[in-house]
Amino acid sequence: MILNIVKYPEPVLSQPGEPITEFNAELKKLAADMFETTYANQGIGLAAPQVGISKRMTVIDLSMGKNPKDKLVLINPEVIEHEGRLYEEEGCLSFPEIKEKVVRAAKVKIRAQDLDGKWFEMEGDQLLARCFQHEIDHLDGTLFIFRMSGLKRDLVLRRIRKLQREGKW
Ligand SMILES: [Zn+2]
Predict the structure, then answer these.
(1) For a FRET experiment, which of 30, 110, 158, 167 has its CA 20 to 30 Å from that of 24?
(2) Mean pLDDT, 10 residues at a time, over the chain (169 residues)?
């Protein structure tokens, strides 16, 4: 089922998500729906708050549905190590059409639970590292506009307000 993605400034996007404690069929269904929703929107990652669910879960698939091995479900994830810095363009499904450069660690190691509640660690660099950080930020209620310089953020917010006035946001 394709879920509705909420856009900024929906309050759920700015709230820290609740930790997940029950690893049941309902959670598996939510993960499957989140993948379907990500693909339907040509995304590479989606966090539960973006579909209005304030919980600590995100799905990532850099292959956009082409390679089943690339499908990642991260539950209660956290970054445990990071190194380097990269300044690259980033987008977000809750900010359609907005793309801006954001500083992120170049390489990170994360720790997360899978759909059965089993903890695992994983390393990522380049785009995967960026995606881990962007999605985990969502679970803390931190949006990528708050990783931009104040000047850039003001320009983006001004653009959003203009789109809102025109009924296009
Ligand atoms: Zn996002």
Answers:
(1) 110
(2) 97 98 98 98 98 98 96 98 96 96 97 98 97 98 96 96 95
4 CA distance to ligand 1 centroid (A)?
A: 14
Other CB atoms within 10 A of residue 164 CB: 12
Residues recognised as catalytic: 135
**For 51, what's the count of Cα atoms within 13 Å in the CB-facing half-sphere?**
23
Q: Ligand 1 centroid vs 139 CA: distance in angstroms? A: 10
142 CA to centre of ligand 1 in angstroms: 9
Q: Per-residue pLDDT tens for 62-74?
A: 999 999 999 999 9
Residues above pLDDT 90, as percent of the chain: 99
The alpha carbon of 94 and the centre of ligand 1 are apart by a number of angstroms equal to 6
SS3 per residue for the chain: CCCCCCCCCCHHHHCCCECCCCCCHHHHHHHHHHHHHHHHCCCCEEEHHHHCCCECEEEECCCCCCCHHHCEEEEEEEEEEEECCEEEEEECCCCCCCEEEEEECCEEEEEEECCCCCEEEEEEEHHHHHHHHHHHHHHCCCCHHHHCCHHHHHHHHHHHHHHHHCCCC
